UniProtKB/TrEMBL annotation:
Coiled-coil zones: none
GO molecular function, one term: hydrolase activity, acting on acid anhydrides
DNA primase/polymerase bifunctional N-terminal domain segment(s): 12-170
Protein name according to UniProt: DNA primase/polymerase bifunctional N-terminal domain-containing protein
């Protein structure tokens, strides 16, 4: 089998230039896919590309996905799929298509002699399927550039290809012309290859009474009949058929189907339904239209609603077996994970600090307290201790909670504790005004903890290099560089006037950052590139599991710092005897004293755990190659080692040893933070403007919980969409991101939108 290739990276942009609606195909398959959280998964929203051109921004994003293959969405594009293994017959059918539809330059071969001819529709239409022949039209797609899953070889374009022929240069076909070809082609097939004729049960053939169906069968069939832009007569015919098939039980079903169209007016739909008086139309019409569009009824479905309900269904035995088989769990919306119980199992100085933060809070936030405590203890030991691999304890921690949820308290508690212990020299400023200011602070005090509130607003002013002033943009770049400079020397910038602006070198800087923010502003400040460039990967995200915790009426006094905590902080700042120099700059000369660090040993079983972690992360990185997730995963081992170091020193500052328990707990914490980062990034960070709008709407609906939002409520909350509302709502429903339900009331149908679960 030929190795997978980066087809999207090689050909995607050229296809867009030629007007083709390219879509990403899951490697090794024929179905659309997307790459997220380090793995390929389904892409339910791919059909949006049937109605609009693919953009270069989308292709550039997909090109970063590993081994992404290419499909073409049908709408303006039409594929004539000849799924015949007899070479002579396949050739005759191709010749017939060229004679009747035009001599197209585009012929694609996947598994020869099967073939596909490509044309352009004058007006998009839904194509019928009469196996082994199929018209791939609106709502369908075909693979263009990929490795065929059966042959193991690339798909072939033996003549021209979409890379050399523009979409506008293809022969034009109409729905009538392709149906005429299909009828003629079926006649050329030998009897054994012709599709079976649909024979309706006798009860459905009666012309003097409605053709009765069942609710389950009609619902299944109706799902295969698109309603993007049907004409009025067709719309009425479907409504009449639904009512003829299942009577008033079909009211909500027809209303839901009708609402898929941007032209739908619920009141008019309800009025039309009340006026329908079907006599000779019913389930047969629905089944016929659905089968033309690829519907294949499940064998357990009862199609004939005229069968007495007390009769034993012929598939009763099979149904009983299916009922006895445990159903697959319903997929749930991926939300921020709750921390496992072991996440809170801390001891030593870490426990003392966490307890102090939590017990003095009006609204306790234990998750945020752990992140803050790790960061605070880390800066005290930053130039005192190191791991055997020379990693230090400098952390970048972001604590997230809703406004008014108590996220700010940890910062104030750390200040009080450091002041009480006499280690307040480690506290940097509450604001970073410029890159030069950051370096000056670290040059003065090489181990510094910067605690920044409203970090999301701060990020919005520094991460965009094109818009941010230079002195602010430098902050983000320096934070990225300083995080990896803790084990060596950071060399400052060179300026022309060395007297006024001498170079600021910092030996083994320990720059720690403890930031708090509300989630919305934090994610809004970041773009899709922040995952891939590794800047965001350096942050540990501690997001509250309870945005607004219960209020504590009588918390412990913040200014009464426990003596045990004061003693522990002093012990960590003092370091191991004989390794005490280096945490303060030499005041007389401004030069830096090289620290004498204590290397914290690691037990053999802890080493084995880190070896296993390294192998696991390497595997996950390879799976996530060319995606932003790879950069995040690249920091997992490093952050785990840092936290294990902090945990060990917290337990015994005099003779610390990284044990298996310390390493295991560090794995739990970092895995939780990494999952939080990847899940929230997927929810908030968009590939493009359209994706950003879609994600914003999903979050609005998600916030409403199980009650959902009525149509008027959702319209009010999504005023920013303007006239794009229906298109966005339709795309999200189609992608199964949200769901819509319609219930009848005394006055008019009530439409409610909910997050799909």
């Amino acid at each position: 089998m030929e190795a997978a290739q980066d087809f999207m990276a090689r050909f995607g942009a050229r296809l867009v230039d030629n007007g083709y609606p390219a879509i990403p195909i899951w490697p090794g398959s024929k179905k659309p896919g997307r790459f997220q959280a380090g793995a390929w998964c389904d892409y339910p929203a791919w059909t949006r590309h049937c109605d609009r051109p693919t953009t270069l921004i989308e292709v550039e994003t997909w090109a970063t996905w590993p081994d992404a293959a290419i499909g073409l969405a049908c709408g303006t594009l039409v594929g004539i799929d000849i799924d015949v293994l007899d070479p002579d017959i396949a050739h005759r059918l191709e010749r017939l298509a060229r004679d009747m539809l035009g001599d197209t330059p585009l012929l694609r071969i996947g598994k020869a002699p099967k073939r596909l001819l490509v044309y352009r529709a004058d007006v998009p239409f839904s194509g019928p399927k009469r196996a082994p022949l199929e018209i791939l039209a609106h709502g369908r797609q075909f693979v263009a550039f990929a490795i065929h899953p059966d042959t193991g070889q690339p798909y072939v374009w033996p003549e021209d290809s979409p890379l050399t022929v523009a979409l506008d240069d293809l022969p034009v076909v109409t729905e009538d012309s392709v149906r005429a070809w299909l009828d003629a082609a079926i006649a050329l097939l030998p009897p054994e290859l012709r599709p079976a004729t649909l024979e309706s049960p006798p009860a459905l053939m009666l012309s003097t009474s409605p053709q009765r169906g069942t609710l389950a069968a009609v619902r299944s069939a109706l799902a295969h009949i698109p309603n993007a832009d049907l004409d009025y007569d067709s719309w009425v015919r479907i409504g009449m058929a639904v009512k003829g098939a299942i009577g008033e039980d079909g009211a909500s079903l027809f209303a839901s189907w009708s609402a898929m169209s941007a032209k739908d007016v619920p009141a008019a739909t309800a009025k039309a339904w009340a006026s329908f008086r079907p006599t000779t139309i019913g389930a047969g019409t629905i089944y016929h239209f659905a089968m033309e569009r690829g519907w294949q009824p499940d064998p357990v479905l009862v199609l004939d609603g005229s069968t007495p309900q007390d009769e034993v269904h012929p598939a009763a035995g099979l149904l009983a077996k299916l009922a006895a088989t445990p159903a697959e769990p319903t997929p749930t919306v991926q939300t921020v994970p709750f921390p496992p119980q072991d996440f809170f199992a801390v001891d030593g100085a870490l426990k003392l600090m966490v307890d102090y933060i939590v017990t003095t809070a009006i609204r306790p936030q234990p998750v945020l307290a752990i992140g803050a405590a790790l960061c605070a203890l880390g800066v005290l030991m930053g130039r005192r201790y190191r791991t055997p691999s020379n990693l230090r304890s400098n952390l970048y921690v972001v604590g997230m909670a809703a406004s008014g949820g108590g996220k700010d308290h940890a910062r104030n508690a750390i200040k009080e504790a450091f002041l009480a212990a006499g280690v307040d020299a480690y506290l940097g400023g509450n604001r970073l005004a410029s890159g030069a200011g950051l370096l000056t602070a670290l040059h003065r005090q090489p181990a510094s903890l910067f605690q920044i509130d409203e970090f999301g607003h701060f990020l919005s002013s520094v991460v965009d290099k094109r818009r941010a002033p230079k002195h602010l943009a430098e902050i983000w770049e320096l934070l990225t560089e300083l995080s990896t400079s803790a084990g060596g020397t950071f060399f400052g910038a060179e300026y022309a006037d060395q007297k006024l602006r001498p170079r600021q070198d910092i030996i083994q800087p320990c720059c720690a950052l403890h930031a708090t923010t509300v989630p919305e502003t934090f994610w809004a400040a970041l773009g899709n590139g922040s995952l891939g460039d590794g800047s965001l990967a350096r942050f540990l995200i501690f997001q509250s599991d309870n945005d607004i915790p219960d209020r504590v009426k009588h918390p412990a006094a913040l200014d009464k710092v426990p003596p045990q905590l004061i003693k522990a902080l002093k012990a960590i700042a003092a370091g191991v005897p004989g390794h005490a120099s280096g945490n303060i700059a030499a005041a007389a000369t401004g030069s830096m004293i090289k620290p004498t660090l204590y290397t914290v040993p690691m037990t053999l079983d802890a080493e084995a755990l880190f070896d296993d972690l390294d192998a696991d992360i390497t595997r996950r990185q390879r799976q996530a190659a060319h995606s932003g997730h790879g950069a995040v995963l690249a920091r997992v081992w490093e952050n785990t080692a840092k936290i294990a170091l902090i945990r060990a020193v917290s337990a015994d500052p005099q003779r610390p040893v990284i044990s298996l328990a310390h390493a295991d707990w560090a794995c739990i914490v970092v895995e939780h933070c990494t999952r939080t980062l990847l899940i929230e990034a997927e929810r908030h960070i968009a590939d493009n403007e359209a994706d950003a709008l879609h994600k914003k709407v999903v979050r609005i609906i998600e916030a409403a919980g199980d009650n959902g939002l009525t149509r008027s409520e959702l319209y009010h909350k999504t005023h920013f969409l303007g006239d794009r509302r229906n298109a966005v709502f339709g795309a999200l429903i189609e992608a199964e991101e949200i769901e819509m339900s319609i219930t009848t009331t005394r006055t008019k149908p009530r439409t409610v939108y909910r997050r799909k679960r």
